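Entry type: protein chain
Record version: 2
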Amino acid sequence: MIDVEALTVTYGKFTAVRDLSFQVRRGELYALLGTNGAGKTSTLEVVEGHRRPASGTVRIFGESPQDRRAVRPRMGIMLQESGFSPDLTVRESVRLIGTLSGRRDDVDRVLGIAGLARKASTSVSQLSGGEKRRLDFATAVYGGPELVILDEPTTGLDIQSRDALWAAVDRLRDEGSTIVLTTHYLEDAQQRADRIGLMHEGTLHREGTVADLTRTLPSVISFTLPPGAPEPPTMGALNGGFHIETFNLQHDLHRLLVWADDTGVELRELQAGPTGLDDVFRALAAA
């Protein structure tokens, strides 16, 4: 669906993206993540056809993203901020953007998906920030495009609205749409992405599944002990508790639990699990 090869994006003498290559496969949810200033936005602007690269090639459906007639009807885009006319109603806004995209759909159906059915006759100027994000989503998914780009889709949404949006994304995927996601909510990417590309300082630093990215760092076991408890068969005391990093989680956790059972010690606040994406980001930023 997307083929980026040796992409470089510059702003004057500053290079925002350098020799970047990655592919997005049909039907997957690909999360393009990165540290602040990593070049994600510049990359997406080229993919969306809003910016020309300094060098390299980008193909969407095998076509140049600059070929608006070939690409635009097949691609929905949810930008971080959209410039809807404040005087138009929600229904008018969706119909207008939908018509410009070249796709066809039922406006009321799309408003229902985005949770805006009750706001159909409300002017854009009267919407809350979260409602405007849902309007952005509605215009992006109008017509069921083959490719949907979601740039920070859940910013400003409450819990229920976030759940509803992800349920709508799941339905799009069931219908065959390919999703490209950028987000600062790492748990969303960790739970939903088939593959993740991690950008840092304008390049693709790592790429793979969540398991691929997290297995390079140790798993963590943490707990506290009651006063007077004997020393456990581990190292890693930290701030009155214990923090154990291990590449053999099952073995070390079993050893700890057997010790606690044999000595009759309660392991308080026990947590054990693999490294998360947030830890991968910390390691990336520190590199």
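Comment: The longest helix spans residues 159-174.
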